[in-house]
Amino acid sequence: MGFLDKLKERFTKKEDSGQYLSGFSKTKESFAKKLSRFAFGFKGVDDEFLEELMIVLLEGDVGIETADTICEELQKRMKKVSHPSFEDTMDGLMEIMHDLYNEVPDPCIQMNPNGTTVILMVGVNGSGKTTSTAKLTKHYLDQGLSVGVVAADTFRAGAIDQLKRWAEKLNVPCVAGKEGADPSSVLVEGCRYAKEHQLDVLICDTAGRLQNKVNLMKELAKMRKVVSREIEGAPHHVWLVIDSTTGQNGISQAKLFKEATDVTGMILTKMDGTAKGGIVLAIKHVLSIPVYFIGLGEKEEDLRPFDLESYLYSICEGLNS
Ligand SMILES: Nc1nc2c(ncn2[C@@H]2O[C@H](COP(=O)(O)OP(=O)(O)O)[C@@H](O)[C@H]2O)c(=O)[nH]1
Ligand SMILES: [Mg+2]
C-alpha cells in the first residue's frame, strides 16, 4: 500500500475530514490539479519535471527554500526506484512533504495544571486575532473548560466591541478596558478575574500594530512581565496569528515576531480563501514554529487543530486515482 493510500485510509476515519476538504479546496484545486497534468506522458523525475514541480510548489507558497529541499529530496529518492511511475512519484512527493514537516514533531499544547492557562494572541492587524480568540474560546468550551477573554487591543474601540460581541454570543466573560487604556493594565485585570473565578483558560487578544522590532519587543516584554506577576508561568502560550493569504509576507511577519519574543505556536487563518496552503510547510520548515490551529472560515466553529495527515490528504485528494 502506497503512502497516499495509507493517508486516505486514515483520513476517511477523521471526524473533521469534511471541514478540511472544503477548507483546503482552493489549495487542492491548484496543487493537485496542476500536478495531475504531469501524469500524461510522464517520463520520470527529469529536469523538466522538477522545473514544473518547482513552479507548482512556489505558486502554492511553499517558498523557495522549502521547495528546493523538496525537489532535491524527490530526485534523490526516485533515483532508487527503477522506472518510477507518476503514482510512485506523487507518493514519494507527499511522503517527503510529510517528513519535512515532521522533522521536528509539534509538541502537545500543555495546559497549566495549577490554575488558569494564559494564552496571548499576537500578530498584525487584520490577521484574524480577534476571530481566532472567539474560535479558540469555542474550542475550549467544547472540551468542557471554563474560558474568559481579555480585550487588550485598546487602540480601537471597534476592536473591543468586536470581542465583546463574540463573548456575548459564546456566553463567556470578557474583561475590557476603555479605548486608549494601557493594554497591560487590562491584562492584569483579566488575570485577576481569571484567578478569582478559577477559569481554566484565559485568552488575551492584543493589538496588532505593524511596527519596528524594538518597539514590538518592548511591548511584548511588558505584556509578558505583567501577566507573569499575576499567574505563575504565564503567559503559558504566545500564539502568533498569520493570515495565510499574505503568503511570503506572512513569513516575514512571523520572523519578526519570532525574533521579538518567544512565540510558542502559530495559528494560520483564512486557509479557506487561498490556494497558498503551502505556507504551512514553509512556516514550519523555515521557522520551526509549530502550527497548532488553522482557520478555515469566519464562523466560531471554523477553527481546526492542525493535523498534518489531514492537511496533506486535503491538498492532494484525487491525485492518484
Ligand atoms: N475566510 C476567513 N476569514 C477569516 C478567518 N479568520 C479571520 N477572518 C476574517 O478576517 C477579518 C479580520 O479578522 P480579525 O479577527 O478582526 O483580525 P485582527 O485584526 O487580527 O483581530 C475578519 O473579517 C474575519 O472575519 C478565516 O479563517 N477564514
Ligand atoms: Mg482584533
Secondary-structure blueprint:
Layout: H1 3-11, H2 17-23, H3 25-36, H4 47-59, H5 64-79, H6 86-101, E1 117-122, H7 129-142, E2 147-152, H8 157-170, E3 174-176, H9 183-196, E4 201-206, H10 213-230, E5 237-243, H11 248-260, E6 265-269, H12 279-287, E7 291-295, E8 303-305, H13 308-316
Parallel strand pairs: 1-4, 1-5, 2-3, 2-4, 5-6, 6-7
Antiparallel strand pairs: 7-8
Guanosine-5'-diphosphate is lined by residues 123, 125-131, 208, 241, 269-270, 272-273, 295-298, 302.
Labels describing this entry:
321 residues, alpha/beta, eight-stranded mixed sheet, binds guanosine-5'-diphosphate, binds magnesium ion
Report on the architecture of this protein.
This protein has 321 residues and is α/β, with parallel strands linked by helices. It has 13 helices and eight strands. It has an eight-stranded mixed β-sheet with strand order 3-2-4-1-5-6-7-8, with helices on both faces. Bound molecules: guanosine-5'-diphosphate and magnesium ion.
Summarize this entry quickly.
With 321 residues, the chain is of the alpha/beta class. The chain contains 13 helices and 8 strands.
Shape: elongated
List all distinct small molecules, including ions and cofactors, that are bound in this structure. guanosine-5'-diphosphate, magnesium ion
Mean pLDDT: 94
**Order of helices and strands, N to C?**
HHHHHHEHEHEHEHEHEHEEH
What strand line-up does the widest sheet have?
Answer: 3-2-4-1-5-6-7-8
Strand content: 5-15%
Largest sheet: 8 strands, mixed
